[in-house]
Specification:
This protein is about 50% helix and about 5% strand. With about 190 residues, the chain is mainly α. The chain has one domain. The chain has a 3-stranded antiparallel beta sheet with strand order 1-2-3, with helices on one face.
Amino acid sequence: MHLPTLLTALTFLPFTLSIPLISRRQSPCFVIGTTPLPAETLKIANALASTVTCDTSVRPLQNLPDTISGGVKFSSINFSNSDLLPLDFALTSFRTPSPPSSASLTLFTNRLNTYLAQEAAVRSVGGNLAIKAPKFFLAFQVARIKASKGIPITDPGQTVEHLLEKVIKNAGRVSQVTKDEVTRLARDL
C-alpha cells in the first residue's frame, strides 16, 4: 500500500470504527421461536417491540415469557388460568361500563398489547391458538371504547363490526348466550 493511501485510510479509521459493521434489528423479546410469523402478526410484533417488555422468570402460557405493557402483565389476565372457555373468560374479565366511553382506553390497550404479544409468541413456537378468542374480544372492546368516545377508526379491520365477526368466528364452542351477549355489546356504544 502506498503511504498516501495508508494515511488517508488511517484518517477515516476512527469514523469507521465507531460505526457497526453489521446492523442488526432487535427482535421483539416475546418472539422466541423459529416458526415464521404471518405477515400481519409480524407487523404487529415489530410495532410492539418497543412497547412490550418481557419477564422470562414468569412463563404463563406454553412456557413463553410473560409480556408486559404499561404495567399490565399477561400473567395477571391470562385466560388459561380460568376454568371458563376463552371467550367466556374474556366476557367476564374484560367488561366495560355502559356506555363504554367511561372505560380506560389506556388500560384496555395495554391489556390488548399483552395478548397481541403473547399470540405472536405462541405463533413463533407453533403453539395452540386458543388465545385468539380473548385477543379478538379485547380488540373489540378497544374499538367499542374508541367508537363511544368518538375517536375515528381508520383501519377497516379494527372497527366494531369487523371485530364482532372475528370474535364470533373464533368463539369456539361457547354457548349461543355468550355469542348473543357479544352481539349485544356491539350495539352498546
